Predict the structure.
Amino acid sequence: MPERNTLTPAERAFVERQRVARLATADAAGQPHAVPVCFAYDGQRFYTPLDEKPKRGGWQGLQRIRNIQARPEASLLVDVYDDDWSRLGYVLARGPARLLPPESDGHATALRLLRDRYPQYRTMDLESRPVIALTPERVTSWGPALAETADTTGTDAGNAWLQPGRGLDFAPLARSRRSVRAFQDRPVPREALEAMLEAARWAPSPHGRQPWRFVVLTRAEPKQRLAEAMGDEWRRVLAMDGQASDVIQKRLDISRERIRTAPALILACLYLEGLDHYPDADRQRAEETMAVQSLGAAIQNMLLAAYAIGLDTGWMCAPLFCGDTVRAALDLDPMLIPHALIPVGYAARDPKRRPHRPLDELVVRFD
Ligand SMILES: Cc1cc2nc3c(=O)[nH]c(=O)nc-3n(C[C@H](O)[C@H](O)[C@H](O)COP(=O)(O)O)c2cc1C
């Protein structure tokens, strides 16, 4: 096979699916050294950050740094092992590694790519440390795993964002997601929103009927219209509660701002037409409750999918209280019942985390 310095599409898809690579360097005397690293690839270079906190010597004391400074030749191995040997594979990239100093060309891009892949990095100060960049000069690969493709039955572009291994494993994903209420002024790629909607599609639902519909808003004008309409309705309700007008104004301003400045909004609606209908109120109520429960499951799928691919989300229940207003503002089908507004974007800052109850408070019986 001729030597290559770029990855084929299959190799690239394979490395994107993996979460960890091994970086091999050698010291001046040729003594080899390898460490597992988190990494990102931009089509030309592999990046890995310096996120450890060495006890002495700072990042400068790391063996890999001293090695790279002594001789830049390095290798990065991205591999998978599976007891089913029809699923093995690796990509090996060899080439010079160098340090991208803070604020140098490519440093910010490298951090963005790394933070997209690993949400844990979003709250770490990586700006003040260099990033290691390895430029492949020779790429080799092997294995049936490279031929594996993502399940594309969903057909839309969102599938690409949901490839296995693109995001986090489940436990850190579920634990790290949090409600975000302020976002950076940075648009959300359409494919990312499609990935969220694609994730919603796979939620459990009563009779498998998927009684949900979604409205996606990314343009300023409909967001503004929705914010204004909901604000007017909320003002009326808060005034009914007897709240002081300056308090009302402040709450309205915050809420309008949240809607207006969210890079994208997904309005999650119930759509009950496809459900069973019962003559008695009890069963009818239970049927509708099941639909609401499943909408919650679909929303959670979206929130986790978003977080897995580097996005943040919030949850606003306000549409539930002013369905007519929301339908009118967005010119929606009267059969849609607005339930939740999900702002989507990149967190402006790390939000406060609420404590979570220990399991022994939540589990009332475990025989
Ligand atoms: C049904 C529901 C409605 C919610 N409504 C709002 C809301 O209107 N405004 C808001 O800021 N957060 C809302 N939240 C988010 C909760 O406040 C948040 O999930 C909770 O405080 C736990 O924080 P975490 O999501 O960061 O774990 C809602 C959450 C749920 C499940």
